Amino acid sequence: MPGWASRTNLISYTEAAQILFKDLAGQNIQAARMRIKRLVERGELMSYLALDEVNPTQQVRISRQAVEALLAAGRTR
Q1: Residue 30 phi/psi, 5° resolution?
Q2: Under 8 Å CB-to-CB from 56, ≥6 apart: which residues?
Q3: What is the mean pLDDT of residues 38-64?
Q4: Rounded to two decimals, what is the model's pTM?
Q5: Where are the domains of the chain?
Q6: Contact at 8 Å (CB) between 45 and 67?
Q7: Sequence-separated (6 or more) residues with CB below 8 Å from residue 52
Q8: Sign of dihedral through CA atoms 50, 53, 57, 63?
């Protein structure tokens, strides 16, 4: 998990879930976040550390561009 990337390009798992799985996130955000986690585990998304985030449980971030690319490619399942 690299510790660098443009801060403006990084979003939380929750934000990524709301973009990729809008309907599911509206009903069950935890399930939508787990889908993001599985995409990271499969290597379809890369996670980064937001070192300026004080809360270590909220340091993991995803590239907004990568999320939008998956959405544009229709790979949201």
Answers
A1: -65, -40
A2: none
A3: 93
A4: 0.81
A5: 7-72
A6: yes
A7: 7
A8: negative
